């Protein structure tokens, strides 16, 4: 008897939970609850799960973001470890290089105290549970490189299969314009994360669970709480424009940037922000060696905004440039107001979200992204457009645009909203939901001997890696992206 079966017969009541939105948050919450044997109705307007903003990075410590608090970094570290324990075939196992340009106001030395804190915390987490060692050896969590160190590595041949931090740094050392940076340069064990393999994992696992009903191409157009029955009535439209209804004991709003639309239907006010962003797919055929991810810090929203070079197999790279000509957009950050919980993006962004990008804009912004990276990696100027952009709108709960570690909020009657900003926070949101359902008596507490991530996600973790990769490649192609973006590194 697997865990889901045991819980269904011994620990969990026959209540039904409705989840609106099948992105990374909604799908993860559905997995968490379905593994417990809870009856789930998962509504997703699109034709597949986990099809939201571009995900490329695990954020295991939040080292991309100098502006966030150390506590947010610690939260992201723990959440990322949990994510890798559950979605074990979704990581691209390569480190991340973080460099500070000489014309940046920050100091490279400013990164070290936080890195020390994260390394110590990682060591403690591994000591507490050896299964937490998913980011390599704690002693290798980060490595510092002086300019002399990198000059020496520059003389070495690129390894066929990089293993050590030095191995990974060699192609970077050969290509970076070394006199443009402050030192030390940092290499940290922040891995890549494949949105396509997350989508494949969630889809394959949920398909095996008869208690989870995934309703694709189903748009929720009404929600109403019945005070007498203490249940939610959900009205939704199917692909053929037929309206149907169902009732659930608990409602979870996991609509990402569109969470405000469900808040409005439920008459539950909320302050939030929404930001439209895009990343660009490029092909660098002259790339030599196996690259780590490279982050070059810069002031957000200025022409010198952070540059991010994310590697994939076969010479593909995903680029971010935190300028308004590349990843960010003029008027791309909007806020809710007293009339609605849903921030309103203008029509140009709505067209983009409906995949109506002009070819001219795709080429223009991708070429600007290439140029932005090439100011630090000169040989990257030979890269070309490798596909259409990865894009989406990111929700930020509240009014702090720098918030990165957020998970869940509860309001009204038997109503929760997932408010993750980063994909690694989805499991934390799912855990909070379980605790809330137990507190409210909607489900019974489950056995104390079932506590580890591996026990709580037994169906998910039994999936075959090759089956996940094969399905991920199909999902990538179906969405119009190169299959390489779904393939593993490391």
Distance between the termini: 34 Å
- Describe the sheet with the most strands: 10 strands, mixed
Could you state the oligomeric state of the chains shown? single chain
Count of discrete alpha- or pi-helical segments spanning 4 or more residues = 14
Q: Low-confidence parts lasting 5 or more residues at pLDDT below 50?
A: 1-12
Structure description:
Helices cover 31% and strands 22% of the residues. The protein has 490 residues and is of the alpha+beta class.
Describe, in short, the structure shown:
It contains 14 helices and 21 strands. It has helices spanning 3-10, 24-35, 70-86, 112-128, 147-153, 165-175, 195-207, 259-266, 347-353, 359-374, 426-439, 453-456, 458-461, 465-478; strands at 16-20, 39-43, 91-92, 96-101, 142-145, 181-188, 192-193, 212-215, 219-226, 231-237, 243-248, 250-253, 272-283, 293-296, 307-311, 316-321, 333-335, 384-385, 390-397, 408-411, 415-418.
Annotation keywords:
disordered N terminus; 490 residues; 10-stranded mixed beta sheet; alpha+beta; 6-stranded mixed beta sheet; 14 helices; 21 strands; globular; single chain
Write the topology of this structure.
Elements: H1 3-10, E1 16-20, H2 24-35, E2 39-43, H3 70-86, E3 91-92, E4 96-101, H4 112-128, E5 142-145, H5 147-153, H6 165-175, E6 181-188, E7 192-193, H7 195-207, E8 212-215, E9 219-226, E10 231-237, E11 243-248, E12 250-253, H8 259-266, E13 272-283, E14 293-296, E15 307-311, E16 316-321, E17 333-335, H9 347-353, H10 359-374, E18 384-385, E19 390-397, E20 408-411, E21 415-418, H11 426-439, H12 453-456, H13 458-461, H14 465-478
Parallel strand pairs: 1-2, 1-12, 2-8, 4-14, 12-21
Antiparallel strand pairs: 3-7, 4-6, 5-6, 9-10, 10-11, 13-16, 13-17, 13-18, 13-19, 14-15, 15-16, 20-21
Helix pairs in contact: 2-7, 2-11, 3-4, 7-14
């Amino acid at each position: 008897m697997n865990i889901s079966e045991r819980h269904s017969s011994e620990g969990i009541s026959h209540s039904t939970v409705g989840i609106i939105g099948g992105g990374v948050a909604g799908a993860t919450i559905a997995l968490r609850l379905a593994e417990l044997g809870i009856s789930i109705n998962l509504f997703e307007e699109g034709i597949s799960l986990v099809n939201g903003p571009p995900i490329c990075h695990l954020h295991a410590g939040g080292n991309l973001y100098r502006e966030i608090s150390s506590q947010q970094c610690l939260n992201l570290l723990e959440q990322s470890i949990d994510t890798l324990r559950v979605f074990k075939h979704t990581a691209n196992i390569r480190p991340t290089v973080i460099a500070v340009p000489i014309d940046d106001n920050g100091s490279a030395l400013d990164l070290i105290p936080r890195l020390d804190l994260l390394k110590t915390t990682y060591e403690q987490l591994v000591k507490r549970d050896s299964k937490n060692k998913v980011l390599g050896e704690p002693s290798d969590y980060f490595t510092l490189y002086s300019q002399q160190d990198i000059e020496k590595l520059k003389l070495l041949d690129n390894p066929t299969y990089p293993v050590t931090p030095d191995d990974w740094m060699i192609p970077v050392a050969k290509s970076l314009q070394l006199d443009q940076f402050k030192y030390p340069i940092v290499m940290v064990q922040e891995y890549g994360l494949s949105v396509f393999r997350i989508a494949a994992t969630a889809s394959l696992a949920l398909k095996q669970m008869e208690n989870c009903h995934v309703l694709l191409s189903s748009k929720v157009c009404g929600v109403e709480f019945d005070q007498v029955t203490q249940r939610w009535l959900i009205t939704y439209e199917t692909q053929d424009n037929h309206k149907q209804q169902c009732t659930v004991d608990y409602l979870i709003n996991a609509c990402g940037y569109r969470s405000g639309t469900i808040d409005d239907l439920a008459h539950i006010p909320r302050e939030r922000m929404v930001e439209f962003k895009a990343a660009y797919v490029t092909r660098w055929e002259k790339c030599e060696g196996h690259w780590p991810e490279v982050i070059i810090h810069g002031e957000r929203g200025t022409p010198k905004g952070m540059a991010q070079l994310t590697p994939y197999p076969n010479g593909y790279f995903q680029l971010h440039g935190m300028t308004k000509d590349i990843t960010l957009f003029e008027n791309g950050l909007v806020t809710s107001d007293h009339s609605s919980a849903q921030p309103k993006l203008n029509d140009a962004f709505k067209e983009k979200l409906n995949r109506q990008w002009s070819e001219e804009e795709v080429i223009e912004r991708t070429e600007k992204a290439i140029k932005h990276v090439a100011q630090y990696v000169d040989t990257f100027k030979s890269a070309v457009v490798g596909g259409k952009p990865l894009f989406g709108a990111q929700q930020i709960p509240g009014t702090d645009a720098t918030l990165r570690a957020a998970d869940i909020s509860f309001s009204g009657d038997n109503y929760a909203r997932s408010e993750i900003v980063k994909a690694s926070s989805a499991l934390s949101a799912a855990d909070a939901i379980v605790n809330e359902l137990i507190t409210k008596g909607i489900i019974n507490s489950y056995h104390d001997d079932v506590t580890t991530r591996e026990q709580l996600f037994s169906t998910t973790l039994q999936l075959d890696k090759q089956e996940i990769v094969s399905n991920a490649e199909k999902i990538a192609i179906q969405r119009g992206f190169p299959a390489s973006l779904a393939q593993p590194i490391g």
